[in-house]
Fold this protein.
Amino acid sequence: MTDHYAVFGHPISHSKSPLIHTAFAEQTDQDMSYLAIEAPLGDFAGTWREFVAQGGRGANVTVPFKEEAHRLCDHISERARRAGAVNTLLLADDGTTHGDTTDGPGLVADLRRNNVRLEGARVLLLGAGGAVRGVLEPLLAERPAALFLANRTAAKASALAADFNDLGAISGGGFEAVTGQFDLVINGTSASLSGDLPPLPEALFTEGGVAYDMMYSAEPTVFMRWAEAQGARAIDGLGMLVGQAAESFLQWRGRQPDVEPVLATLRQQLG
Ligand code: NDP
């Protein structure tokens, strides 16, 4: 019998998740469907219950339902609890709903795929919104030597760092508080969406340093271009997108898909 999955959002027509999961299902020979569904605002729990009643086994959840999805779960992973948001729902055999957030594992997997070392590294993470909150637990689990969180609104970065400081060497502040050099600078702000560059000092990267922009587009982002001019290697967030999908797929189907061919297809489509 075909198992049903979907991504819920509002809007949702832009989503690449159906393409990604359909490709994963073909690769691993899974009898499943995966649709993009625009859910009405206001009662996401009701939407999920209806989907389950019609044979739904799991879902991805995107803007603006990640917090509502978090609240409806019977069981929640530690990283989703810390993130306060869920992007993956799974219906267990006993009928309970499990929630997780796979953005962080997707980011860590993509960094690993790109041979970026996290253990012992000095990491600068820009931003303090939902995406950054979601990746902090998996990043700190890789034991960087230090992680500095810098945000336009400094108080948000300080508060977020305080929430996670039981997990590792993390501190936070405004962009003006950024000092020293970093092995890895991750842009988790939405500045690239509007072509803006967070105000960063020159000589920010160590020798062989890496810049990672969570955003992706056909052309390198302004942050990536700036980092390359500073001598860093720049990577965009397309691999994080495919990586988070692979982690969700693994949880639903127990099979680890190969991200490389799917990433190549998406890259070609972007171009
Ligand atoms: P939020 O709206 O929750 O947070 C936005 C953050 O960006 C805030 O920290 C905000 O600072 C900062 N910001 C916005 N504009 C500027 C600017 N012009 N200069 C400096 N800082 C700015 O967004 P999300 O956290 O959900 O998303 C952030 C980015 O991550 C987006 O580009 C999104 O596309 C990307 N993303 C990519 C994923 C992937 O799979 N590749 C997954 C999830 C997200 P302040 O607090 O001061 O307002």
Observations:
- The first helix runs from residue 17 to 28.
- The mean pLDDT is 97.
- The pocket of NDP is lined by residues 103, 127-132, 151-153, 156, 188-193, 196, 198, 214-215, 237, 240-241, 244 (CB under 6 Å).
- Residues 3-101+240-270 form a domain with the Rossmann fold fold (CATH 3.40.50.10860).
